[in-house]
Fold this protein.
Amino acid sequence: MLLVARRLVRLTIVLLAVTFFTFFLLDRSPGDPAAALAGENATEEVIEQKRAELGLDRPLVERYVDWLGGAVQLDFGDSIVTAGLSSWDLIRESLPKTLELMILAELMAIAISVPLAMASATRPGGLVDRMASSTAFGLLALPSFVLGIYLAFVFGVHLGWFPTIVNRLPGLNDDPLENLRQMFLPSLTLALNLVAVYHRLLRSDLIETLQEDFVVLAQVRGLSDRRIMWRHVLRPSSLNFTTAVGLNVAGLIGGALIIEVLFSINGMGRLVIESVVLEDFNVVAAVVALLTVGYVTMNFVVDLLYSVLDPRIRHGAR
């Protein structure tokens, strides 16, 4: 429990530091939300009045403390640009699409990379291993947006199997099959770079674990290769893999924003870009806060999984 408490304290400090630094940068940015809201021909008196209405005339620390008090209750303030809607209203509309994209991409990456890494580790240097390694190096050399253009052209434009514009995505509850069909190409685009990383990492650890004495003993006992791999080798080889999955949440967040713009998905990516362009700083601060919470939470979960996968880490931390 003491270890968990320490990690929670560290994560809280990180969250506070990131949100305050974001607040500071937005306050020092060249744009002026009050001037943008007042209009091009507004007088200085009108701009000052708008600034007072928005609370921008108060000290930065005071505004941050007030914002933080509301943020813990999911009250991030009203959108400066979109009248009648709060920042949380806009996020609530966009966040499910981004989360779905990230989850589908992660599930695809794990479902492809784990069996592929196990097949490669079973016969290093074999046909499957050579083909998988060559493909992984090729995927790592391609940026996700370039890969997305190729996939959209082949499977969307040329073959017509999947849509290349996903701006009218049905809900999972309304039409799950159509939803998954439209999200397939964006999710696969985001997943393939992860497959390359996960495969190379897990393959190396599996090969190293297969040389351990307890694996040799299991082989002497006559256990099948599949049983040995799944029950005795995969778990102790998953520490680095688990780390990569957790840390790649940050890459997934950034990659998802790019892929959303590429496939015209009305998710957090488009919301962030529009909010920055329109100087809707309340929305920008809210998005950064939520993304930071997601990232530090995932790192916390990864730390806890360490102690489950390898009890030596738990005992060593006491």
In short: Residues 89-279 form a domain with the MetI-like fold fold (CATH 1.10.3720.10). The first helix runs from residue 2 to 28. The mean pLDDT is 77.
